[in-house]
Specification:
single chain; Immunoglobulin-like; 3 domains; 39 strands; six-stranded parallel β-barrel; about 475 residues
Length: about 475
């Protein structure tokens, strides 16, 4: 029995060892995968005037070999004597900058003629502010891959290390769209190995990648770097290394036959707008069965044009209706006729987006006033005269009705004034056809904001003018 028990348990252990070994083999065969955790897109880091330079340093900029720089470079508070290896030309006629055959751009130093000293002091200050801003952003991930990014793919976010970071010859991929932002917070050195490449995929832009490094940045032979380097100490590039971005160092930048170009600018995003509406803002005399339309500057995502993003309000009361979208036009069709002589407010919110996912920059709001009710045009004939009748009831609370007749079509104005002659309400202001009209005045036209007392209502229709008195009693 003892021997059988030993053999049985040994067999079980053998099977477990073979199973674990197989798991280990599979694990070793699986390649490194992308870090695909999705984080909220961080805000970009504002470089201020430091963003006007591809190289900015406080203590000096030096080069040997065949270097090619596109963009402006500058030093401060160090003087021009600390820009070495560039074969600086004579100062321009203003003595504010100089040039070099190695630089397609201007070269600035703190000891050049005004306003250059102030320009450089401001730029260096902005560089420090940008460094502090980048360092202070809350991180999404810490100590990822223990600081070795070789072969990894990183999506947008803020990444933090309390150690140094290395990118080996296998390079690293920065993957995301042209609006995504990456911030790398590195407490020690950043080392990019010889031949290592920082790949951009999916539309990612160097202008949206920020390397905030407390230690030294070392870009070794033929390394290809992408992004804005905000370094608290020195940035050193060895032979053949390239940078698409900016080298902003709080000490020095040293070059050996390198190529530096500014980052590609982020695409200009044109946000959609509401280009026109029917009725237009402040229109009066709007038909009670009117559908409200808004025309956009570009094609919109139809799923974002809905009753929650396109609303019609009468005061604080929502108006029911059906929202539709075709081409570039959104339509709100009220479920029933609107109230006469009433102010309505229409809002299209920032929830409305174009087909690229860009939202309106802000809510678009406009208002209009409906027309009065035509109560009678008997036997197809218009009234034989212009007339304004006494309101009924009078005195009134909370509402009354004003009647008038028009002999012929024309522009009509019906307004209410207080005893001081100040206009307190516009009931009609627009063209009307010949006919008899009834206009309610009261709860729907804001009389609750008026005090009790005597008011006058005045009708103007062409050369016809008539005024009558009404009394509000609360």
């Amino acid at each position: 029995m003892k021997t059988s028990y030993t053999t049985h348990t040994t067999g079980i252990l053998d099977r477990w060892m073979r199973f674990l070994g197989a798991i280990l083999v599979v694990a070793l065969m699986v390649p490194a995968v992308a870090f695909s955790q999705t984080y909220a897109n961080p805000a970009t880091v504002n470089l201020g005037t430091a963003g006007n330079f591809v190289i900015l340093a406080e203590t000096g900029i030096s080069t040997t070999g065949t270097t090619a720089i596109t963009g402006d470079i500058g030093v401060s508070p160090a003087a021009a004597t600390y820009i070495t290896g560039f074969g600086l030309n004579a100062l321009d006629t203003t003595h504010t900058f100089t040039a070099s055959s190695l630089v397609t751009g201007n070269i600035y130093a703190s000891n050049y003629a005004p306003p250059t000293p102030t320009k450089m002091t401001t730029a260096v200050g902005d560089m420090g502010t940008a460094y502090t801003t980048a360092a202070g952003r809350p991180s999404n991930a810490s100590e990822l891959y223990t600081g070795d990014l070789t072969g990894q793919t990183l999506t947008r976010g803020v990444y933090k290390w309390g150690t140094g970071v290395t990118i080996g010859t296998g390079g690293v991929t920065i993957s995301g769209s042209a609006t995504d932002v990456w911030i790398f917070q590195i407490a020690q050195n950043l080392t990019v190995a010889s031949g290592a490449i920082v790949h951009l995929s999916g539309g990612a832009l160097a202008s949206n990648i920020f390397w905030q490094v407390a230690g030294q940045v070392n870009l070794n032979t033929t390394a290809q770097m992408e992004g804005i380097i905000l370094c608290q100490t020195q940035i050193a590039m060895t032979n053949g290394a390239t940078l698409e971005g900016r080298a902003l160092a709080q000490t020095a930048v040293t070059l050996i036959g390198n190529t530096i170009t500014p980052p590609a600018a982020a695409p200009v995003i044109i946000l959609p707008t509401v280009s026109s509406t029917v009725p237009a803002n402040a229109d009066t005399g709007v038909a009670l069965n009117k559908q409200i339309t808004a025309t956009f500057s570009t094609a919109m995502n139809a799923s974002t044009i809905s009753a929650s993003t396109f609303t019609l309000m009468q005061g604080t009361t929502s108006v029911l209706g059906v929202v539709s979208y075709t081409g570039t036009i959104a339509t709100f069709a009220p479920a029933s006729d609107l109230l006469p002589s009433t102010i309505y407010t229409v809002t299209i919110t920032t929830g409305a987006m174009d087909t690229a996912g860009n939202a309106l920059a802000s809510n678009y709001v406009w208002s209009f006033t409906t027309g009065a009710i035509v109560t009678a045009v008997e036997n197809g004939l218009a009234p034989q005269e212009f007339a304004l009748f006494q309101n009924y009831p009078n005195p009134f609370n909370p509402s009354t009705r004003i009647q008038y007749s028009l002999e012929k079509a024309g522009m009509v104005s019906l307004k209410v004034y207080n005893l001081l002659g100040l206009e307190v309400a516009t009931l009609v202001n627009g063209r009307q056809e010949a006919g008899s009209y009834t206009v309610p005045f009261g709860i729907n036209t804001g009389t609750f904001g008026l005090s009790s007392g005597v008011y006058f209502y005045r009708l103007e229709a062409g050369s016809f003018v008539s005024t009558k008195k009404l009394i509000l009693m609360k």
